[in-house]
Design brief:
The protein is α+β, with helices and mostly antiparallel strands. It is 18% helix and 53% strand. It has 13 helices and 46 strands. It has a 46-stranded mixed sheet that branches. Strand 23 and strand 24 form a beta hairpin. The radius of gyration is 40 Å and the shape is globular.
């Protein structure tokens, strides 16, 4: 026995030692396989740290456990700012023998802890989860020979996950919180059963901005028969409960290729009205158990057909509620006699063919009956036949349904009918009235109520023509905290409406939004207005303002506006405006755009066209001043969202503006720059901002500029600029301007100052830095003073020629001509004199750091070193060199600024240095320009061929359609002829006289 016990403990020791050692032996191997598989299979950024990868034999013994903490999957291109998945803890159970054998890693289980998964579909249909790289070398879809992983999963688990789904193409959204999910199935087999269980504490489903399911609890068990050979998945036993509504699925899903064939049916498994009431938004609260209900229901539906890129399956659902009732325990009245009979049906999956048939909808809210019927056949065009009638005492409503923190009173009457077709050219015949008498609204968040609220409104259309539609708010009036507001609005016609409106009174937005909170935005402030307008939209669009009557005044005080789309916020401290037909005269406006103070006055014209018509520009002339304006707050990324300092972004010029801004700002912040004493004029039109005589001080120098900035394409913004800079330090220019750093890096090695007058144009990148290979320009650089020392190029020339005076010298008051061609800087020849040495320099350098210069030095013949003298004698002849007092050395300078290559390329005893360099530089300039022309021509040819290809494809398509139609017509004629031959001969009519 003792030996047995000792042996047992030795076995345990060996086992624990193996459990500790084996993971270390195979960790690198597993990580390499994981990295390789990610690179081969995933077209996205998979982010994790090596230190966050761990391997254990104890967690899933006898399987090996691979864990990755802080794992993130981030999309590319359109989704480069989106995180598809953020997983704090990701674990895979690996078959130990597959790890040891090394052929492939066999995955048995997967566990995700607290994952946040965000699925997005853009309006174009592009999905952010489409990141799998197909194996083009595989002979069949099931061929996994090229993979290091074999997904033989038999169980998986998600703990406390969060799921978001946003489909902008529908538009549909879903969110699920605290999701716990487990599943099992033997994926090594081709035919097996998969069993899963899912729970979620909060599920919200939204369509077109409306929450149809809100914060509901989900509990579901699903068993499916899996046939991987046929890609056929069949529902077996399943139980799904949404809040208190249980339902079940039956049917199958077939996925043989990229299409999906659906044949599914669902139905509620319990028939109490309470069940369906639990999924009505706002009803299912903590106190839902206390609500008394009665009544019966039936609820079922189907989805049947093919889902693909070009088709949708058919769908339908039917809901019936019979004698429903609900009553809150703390309220005196109940909602009774709730009867609903409705169906939604779409047989062919074409959305426009959807039928919505509300055969009956009735309920009594206390003593207030509501009745409605509606049949909608098709969506575009939409055939409508329905009516609604309700007489609701709002005080009685609050006795039936709790409206927390709010008191309502008043009599609301709704009576409307609609029958006919709704389309772009027609309207149903409509007769509808909505009246509210003596309304009263009081919120717990604000002590003063809205009182004396009266609305008399109607909608009429007696012919079915859109232009005969009449929308009339005959009277609207109310008082808020004793301050009156009243108005009326009449609109006649839809396509080219005539309008007659007036609004007068005080609107306190602070008080109003406390009573009616606005989700996603904060609004406060006071507007005192007396504004009237009467006319026709056709006259507004034609700018016939003499036919329009518009006048009034408006005063704004402490208006604050912040929203999700405008998080920077706008504040108008004070503003006064006077209206007439043509313009608004804005007086004494002061406030803040974000954190930037602003003062403005000026005139706005065509404001009616801008407000009422499409694609009409708002014109104006404004004087704007600011003490400190921060442009960085208004940077946007390529999707239009505000960007932080670390995010590349483009400042977008607003559309539909034709305004002139006369600017005066003491300081403007742009990226890391501080521009002082900014003045000038900006003209904004067609998404282009033109700068006229804009001047400012920055980096100890004075800047003056004119030009344009074009954001008609946010992906490819353009600019052109005339720039005058006075007295700027070379090193300040190098350290602060990427253009100088890329095209003239020698500025970083010079001590001194310069001025310049330069014109250039090109394209800006998303980081607002010029795309250098698109740059073209020309100008003059005036070197005020430049101390040259420790410059590698000059040091190399000095070492070659043995002219020590070249190592350190000063250049003063020297003008240099230069051009920028296709992103390369061309420096035209200029002269220098250092001691007894006369120099001429010129050449090119590009954004890649390569330099190509030529330098001619005219020097006394006796100062040339023995080595150079010997090389010159071999080039020019010994007698010519000995007979000359001075000689010219031609040096080629290549390489880079930090690692230049200098060599003797020739010499002369006659040729002047300037002519020697001028010819070489001109050849370089001609070559650069020719390359630019060749590049442009190649791009134009490419675009031309693309246009011709698309035109030919369209022509071929139309020709094929025409041939098909011609053949069909011929077949129809032949068929009709043959059909006629097959008819029996007509018998003579003997009833007619003469027969």
């Amino acid at each position: 026995m003792r030996k047995v016990i000792i042996g047992f403990f030795i076995f345990l020791a060996v086992l624990f030692a193996a459990a500790a050692i084996l993971p270390l032996l195979f960790k690198d191997k597993i990580k390499q396989a994981l990295d390789k598989q990610i690179a081969q299979s995933i077209d996205a950024r998979v982010v994790y740290q090596t230190n966050d990868v761990s391997v254990s034999l104890l967690r899933h013994f006898p399987n090996l456990s691979l864990s990755v903490d802080n794992l993130a999957i981030i999309g590319k291109d359109s989704f480069q700012l989106d995180t598809l998945a953020q997983i704090p803890s990701f674990n895979m159970g690996l078959n130990l023998m597959s790890v040891i054998s090394g052929d492939e890693l066999k995955v048995n289980s997967i566990t995700l802890d607290q994952p946040v998964i965000h699925l997005v579909v853009l309006k174009s249909g592009k999905a952010n989860w489409d990141i799998y790289i197909p194996d083009t070398t595989a002979t069949t879809p099931a061929d996994t020979a090229a993979s290091d992983f074999k997904m033989a999963i038999n169980q998986w688990e998600v703990n406390s996950g969060t799921l978001f789904y946003d489909d902008l193409s529908i538009p549909f959204g879903m969110a699920a919180y605290h999701v716990n999910h487990t599943g099992s199935g033997d994926f090594e087999q081709n035919v097996f059963d998969m069993v899963s269980h899912t729970k979620a504490d909060g599920v919200t489903m939204t369509y077109n901005g409306v929450n149809y399911i809100e914060n509901a609890k989900l509990d579901g068990d699903v068993a499916m028969a899996m046939n991987l050979n046929k890609s056929l998945y069949t529902f077996k036993d399943n139980r799904i409960r949404l809040n208190e509504l249980p339902f079940t699925f039956n049917g199958s899903i077939l996925m043989p290729d990229s299409t999906i064939d659906l044949d599914l049916a669902f139905k509620a498994t319990e028939t109490d009205f309470r069940n369906v009431l639990s999924v009505v938004p706002g009803m299912y609260t903590e106190n839902f158990d206390d609500i008394k209900t009665s009544g019966k229901l039936s609820f079922d539906g189907y989805v049947k057909g093919r889902y693909s890129e070009t088709s949708m399956p058919g769908f339908g659902t039917e809901l019936k509620v019979i004698d429903g009732m609900f009553k809150y325990p703390d309220l005196p009245d109940a909602a009774r006699n709730i009867n609903v009979n409705m169906r939604v049906d779409n047989k062919d999956g074409i959305v426009d063919n959807t039928v919505v048939d509300i055969r009956q909808l009735h309920m009594d809210l206390g003593k207030n009956p509501i009745d409605a019927k509606m049949l909608v056949e098709g969506l575009n065009p939409m055939k409508v036949d329905g009516n609604v009638k309700a007489n609701v005492d709002l005080a009685e409503l609050t006795k039936v349904y709790p409206i927390e923190g709010m008191i309502l009173r008043g009599l609301l009457r709704v009576n409307g009918t609609a029958k006919g077709t709704y389309s772009e050219k027609s309207m149903p015949v409509i007769d509808a009235d909505l009246n509210l008498a003596n309304g009263f609204v009081k919120s717990k968040d604000f002590p003063a109520p809205i009182q004396h609220l009266n609305v008399v409104s109607n909608v009429r259309n007696t012919t079915g023509n859109t232009d005969d539609t009449r929308i009339n708010i005959e009277n609207f009036n109310m008082t808020l905290d004793g301050e009156p507001l009243e108005g009326r609005v009449l609109v006649e016609g839809i396509d080219k409406p005539a309008f007659d409106a007036r609004v007068k009174g005080i609107l306190d937005l602070t008080k109003l939004t406390k009573i009616f909170p606005q989700e996603g935005m904060t609004v406060s402030g006071r507007i005192n207005a007396d504004v009237a307008a009467k006319g026709k939209l056709s006259d507004v669009e034609a700018e016939k303002y003499n036919n329009v009557i518009a006048n009034g005044t408006m005063a704004i005080n402490n208006l604050n506006f912040v929203s999700e789309e405008l998080p920077q916020g706008i504040k108008i401290t004070n503003a006064n405006a006077v209206f007439n037909n043509e313009r608004i005269n804005l007086q004494n406006m002061s406030g803040y755009l974000g954190k930037s103070d602003i003062q403005a006055n000026g005139i706005l014209s065509n404001y009616l066209g801008y407000a009422l018509a499409d694609n009409q520009a708002l014109r104006g002339n404004f004087n704007i001043s600011s003490n400190r304006f921060d442009v960085n707050e208004w940077m946007v990324d390529d999707e239009g969202a505000p960007a932080d300092q670390s995010t590349p972004g483009v400042v977008e010029v607003p559309a539909n503006l034709d305004v002139t801004l006369n600017m005066n700002a003491k300081q403007v912040l742009y990226t890391d720059f501080k521009l002082n004493d900014v003045g000038g004029r900006v003209l904004v039109k067609n998404k282009i901002a033109k700068l006229e005589q804009v001047s400012f001080n920055m980096l100890g120098a004075t800047f003056a500029t004119s030009g344009s900035y074009n954001t008609q394409s946010l992906q490819h913004p353009l600019f052109d600029m005339k720039l005058n800079i006075d007295n700027l330090e070379f090193k300040e220019a190098f350290n602060n301007f990427n253009t100088v750093k890329a095209l003239a890096p020698i500025a970083g090695l010079l001590d001194g100052r310069f001025s310049t007058n330069f014109s250039f144009a090109g394209e800006l990148g998303q980081d607002m830095i010029p795309v250098f290979n698109t740059l073209d320009g020309a100008g003059i650089i005036n070197v005020i003073r430049a101390a040259v020392r420790n410059v590698p190029i000059v040091d190399k020339i000095s070492s070659l020629t043995h002219f020590e005076e070249l190592k350190t010298f000063v250049v003063e008051n020297k003008k240099i001509d230069a051009e920028v061609v296709n992103g390369s800087l061309v420096v035209k020849p200029f002269d220098l004199k250092v001691g007894n040495t006369e120099m001429t320099v010129g050449g090119t350098n590009n954004v890649n750091g390569q330099i190509d210069y030529v330098t001619a030095l005219n020097v006394p013949a006796g100062k040339v070193g023995r080595e150079l003298n010997t090389r010159l004698a071999s080039l020019l002849g010994n007698e010519q060199v000995q007979a000359s007092d001075r000689v010219t050395l031609k040096l080629n300078v290549g390489g880079t600024l930090t690692n230049p290559k200098v060599g003797l390329a020739g010499g002369s005893v006659k040729t002047q240095a300037k002519e020697m360099v001028k010819e070489v530089v001109q050849n370089k300039l001609d070559n650069v320009k020719q390359q630019a022309r060749d590049t442009l021509q190649a791009e134009l040819t490419k675009r031309k061929l693309e246009v011709e290809r698309k035109a030919q494809e369209e022509l071929d398509k139309k020709r094929a359609e025409a041939e098909k139609q011609l053949k069909q017509k011929a077949a129809d004629k032949v068929g009709g002829f043959l059909k006629g031959l097959s008819k029996p001969a007509a018998k003579p009519d003997t009833t007619k006289a003469g027969n």
